[in-house]
Design goal:
Number of domains: 1
Radius of gyration: 14 Å
Oligomer: single chain
Helix content: 25-40%
CATH superfamily: Histidine kinase-like ATPase, C-terminal domain
Largest sheet: 4 strands, antiparallel
CATH class: Alpha Beta
CATH topology: Heat Shock Protein 90
Number of strands: 4
Structural class: alpha+beta
Strand content: 15-25%
């Protein structure tokens, strides 16, 4: 789980505001009867609608991100999804726009199915 948070927070910083404006990253928690939720929000460059479907595909890097930050393997979000799925959880990303929000869910019990 530490790797999941590291990947999301590093991405939020790496793809932060282009204009040199203030970096803003929020981490918010919540829960319902079955899941603990963690929301990681940032107000950076955002994710284009046409890139959202491939966001968790191994080695995928969106062209704007590739152009802006040439380093990166395209594995961070894939690893995050796989780790969460191994814990019977899941990860989603918000619709395009600002902020970009990743919602993580981890079941309170191993018996929960999505």
């Amino acid at each position: 789980m530490r790797q999941v948070f590291n990947n999301l927070i590093v991405n939020a910083i790496k793809y932060g505001p282009e204009s040199g404006g203030p970096l803003r990253v929020e981490i918010v928690t919540g829960e319902d009867d079955e899941y603990f939720f963690i929301y990681v929000r940032d107000w950076g460059m955002g994710i284009r609608e046409q890139d959202q479907e491939q966001l968790f595909v191994q080695y995928f890097r969106a062209p704007p991100a590739e152009d802006r930050v040439p380093t990166g393997s395209g594995l961070g979000l894939t690893v995050a999804r796989r780790v969460l799925e191994a814990h019977q959880g899941w990860i989603d990303v918000s619709e395009p726009g600002n902020p970009t929000e990743f919602k993580l869910a981890v079941p309170k019990s191993r018996r929960v199915k999505r």
